[in-house]
Design a protein that fits this description.
single chain, 109 residues, Alpha-Beta Plaits, 4-stranded antiparallel β-sheet, 4 strands, 31% helix, globular
Length: 109
């Protein structure tokens, strides 16, 4: 499953500031059972808008991490809170099937 959220960088700050916090938190989150990777993307034409995607084996695995979250993760998230607005877009199931052009390989995340 994928957990996706939008990050809006507040005026006077940069995406790179948030990316630093993102990497530090992701390194801890990825130690949880069922964590399969994270991605942070900048919106084309709007450097203050990002989309974050965390991939998990299951919703249950993500929920378990949230229930027993390492307190350092919360500290990192709170440190970034003053310069970002975060809007969860939701939790999405993996597609039942994917159609790819011939010769293309599927991204494992």
């Amino acid at each position: 499953m994928k957990f996706i959220f939008e990050v809006r960088i507040r005026e006077g700050h940069t995406a790179e500031e948030y990316a630093d916090a993102w990497v530090r938190a992701s390194e801890l989150i990825q130690q949880a059972p069922g964590a399969r990777g994270t991605e942070l993307h900048r919106k084309i034409g709007d450097p203050q808008a990002l989309i974050a995607i965390a991939t998990w084996d299951s919703k249950a695995a993500r929920d378990a991490m949230e229930k027993d979250k390492d307190p350092r993760i919360g500290e990192i998230i709170r440190s970034a809170a003053p310069f970002v607005d975060i809007r969860p877009l939701g939790e999405f199931e993996e597609p039942e099937w994917v159609v790819l052009p011939p010769g293309t390989t599927q991204n494992p995340s």
